[in-house]
Amino acid sequence: TSQNRAEITCTTCPYCGVGCGVLAGQDGTIKGDPDHPANFGRLCSKGSALGETIDLEGRLLHPMVHGKQADWDSTLDLIAGQFSRAIRDHGPDSVAFYVSGQLLTEDYYVANKLMKGYMGSANIDTNSRLCMASSVAGHKRAFGTDTVPGTYEDLDEADLVVLVGSNLAWCHPVLYQRLVAAKQARPDMRVVNIDPRRTATCDIADLHLPIAPDGDAALFNALLAEISRRGAVDKDYISAHVNGFDAAIEAAQACDPALSGLNAEQINAFCDMWIGTPKVVTVYSQGVNQSICGTDKVNAIINCHLATGRIGRAGMGPFSVTGQPNAMGGREVGGLANMLGWHLDIENADHRAAVQEAWDSPTICTHAGLKAVDLFEACASGKIKALWIISTNPAVSLPDAGNVAEAIANVPFTVVTDIMARTDTGDLVDVLLPATGWGEKSGTVTNSERRISRQRPFLEAPGAARPDWKILCDVAARMGWADAFDYQSAADVFREYAALSNLGTRFGRDFDISGLGDLTEAEYDALAPVQWPVRKGETPGGRFFAEGGFYHADGRAKMLAITAPQCVSPEAENTFVLNSGRVRDHWHTMTRTGKSARLSQHLAEPFAEIHPEDAFALGLRDAGLVKLSSRYGTATLRALISSKVARGEIFVPMHWTAQFAPSGRINTLMAPAVDPVSGQPATKGGAVKAEAF
Ligand code: SF4
């Protein structure tokens, strides 16, 4: 009823990139928002348990300096002084921010403006680098800018949905539920699941392709070659809108399909379905992105959609599903070290000058900053003198996590902003700052389909906790830039960011929400979920590229010649390909979901999922302990013996921290190998030795 409606707050789930609308009561009751177009009332286990994670146990409630409680003023003075001194003595590239897709867009925007326009460095990277940097790079190579062409409605309208490297059932459960509902409504709709593992997502798959780790580019090259051989190319679309067709086909034809790890029958079955079904959406996620050839994999997928003109029309297109609620917002504000806000390019002098003018800033970064893995290597080598980590836990989540922890400890001055008092990263630093968390802070997030939704507060800020944008502004003011950071509210930040986004259109870019640039406080508060672009006087949202209109200088898309898909193939005895991923009921490093007993019941401890024949060869029993080791570290886990993983491969969940399972920190095993184009770490593939413990 309207009375009940008034007692609850419409907000957005803080976990995955589906971006579900949530109705939250002050007493912690949580329901799905039936009016939100991302979820229409559905929630998954994590979203439903949000009320169990908002107590104050373990919260960081006051600034802490070297382990002692401190007041805000002196702590902010200390931070401003240390960052100013580092810039004065060692230059702007001696400071760095490492932020998070958990930040709201307003927080992200202020951090980006402060680092790139005022401190004068692009050393601001984000844990989104671990999530979808390869998709961003693939989009930019193909389309000229980082555009997600489609919408969630395409999943309802497609006749074939191909999931690549995506355990949608556990990682984006509400989208999975949407697929289940679509398949029930239209039983002829088919689903293909491409994954080395037989995951829960296989429950709705008509075809499971147990691909070799990193075999995706070989498979999509095989598909592209077959599209050409069978005459399924949309020649009119190619001629009008696409460059690079011949080279891409030639490379695809030269590629050995066996590199996919699939046999000819499996590849043919896939090609029959894909080529024979015009309305096809190819959804890709971390199994594609988190790889040393992640960007090539993205472009191999996009090539097939461009070659057939199956893009930007109802039920057709490539679709990157992001991990975090605001991974897209971070991309839009330029939260990655190699981007400017509003999808503008650091490398472009005109873009840099326009951003500097818009910000009326004293400087602007002149080159790309350090991407996540490089950033922490620079910490280890002594190049970074002051580091501020915001709302993320890199001592657990980055590859080679043991050395990352040492690198953080090596930086002369370190700050962490977090909601929790104890995290693996927070334990290493000089200063801890208490941030407001979900339910306490106000702002916006952008989900995987470009939909901007409000996160609204329904709880008081606990202790001395403050919003991230406010903390950043207070430091900026102390560094001498009070006027440029004189925001009075999150709405104030949003207005500036949205109004300036017409720079996107001015430079022929996709991103523009200037139609939201003059919202009043009340209008911002009431903002309904809206899909960008939101240009003045135009209907917002929609799809891109049905009629071309790409963002390369000539307006055409580019197909890439994908020539050398690389696969991990450890050959030494007892050496396995390590594949990491999420479990259904935990989120990232468990700082929130670890609070819920209900969520911890699903899988209570980390495990190593291993094929029965491999387990037998190693002398492992189910639930016995297995020790995994690499040149980077070791982890000891309980064996889960299952034929869902292929021989020679081991799957491990990524969530557990020193706090929850000291011997189960998986990313201590991972090599700091990255995709050469995107800089995204290859946390889906690494070689480990396994032995019974
Ligand atoms: Fe939250 Fe994602 Fe679950 Fe939706 S699907 S409730 S956004 S975790």
Question: How would you describe this protein?
Answer:
Residues 6-58 form the 4Fe-4S Mo/W bis-MGD-type domain. Keywords: 4Fe-4S, Iron, Iron-sulfur, Metal-binding, Molybdenum, Nitrate assimilation, Oxidoreductase. It comes from Litorivita pollutaquae. This is Nitrate reductase. Belongs to the prokaryotic molybdopterin-containing oxidoreductase family. NasA/NapA/NarB subfamily. This protein has 693 residues and is an alpha/beta fold. The chain has four domains: 2-53, Single Sheet (N-terminal domain of TfIIb), CATH 2.20.25; 64-131 and 326-422 and 442-531, Rossmann fold, CATH 3.40.50.740; 133-321, Dimethylsulfoxide Reductase, domain 2 (3-Layer(aba) Sandwich), CATH 3.40.228; 575-692, Beta Barrel (Barwin-like endoglucanases). 33% of the residues lie in helices and 16% in strands. The strands form six sheets. It has a seven-stranded mixed beta sheet with strand order 5-4-16-15-14-6-7, with helices on both faces. Strands 21-25-22-24-23-26 form a six-stranded mixed beta barrel. The longest helix is centred in the first third of the chain and has 19 residues, at 72-90. The chain is globular, with a radius of gyration of 24 Å. The termini are far apart. The relative contact order is 0.16. The model is unreliable at 1-6 (pLDDT under 50). The structure holds iron/sulfur cluster. Iron/sulfur cluster is lined by residues 13, 15-16, 18-20, 39, 43-44, 46-47, 172-174. Residues 13, 15-16, 18-20, 39, 43-44, 46-47, 172-174 line the site of iron/sulfur cluster.
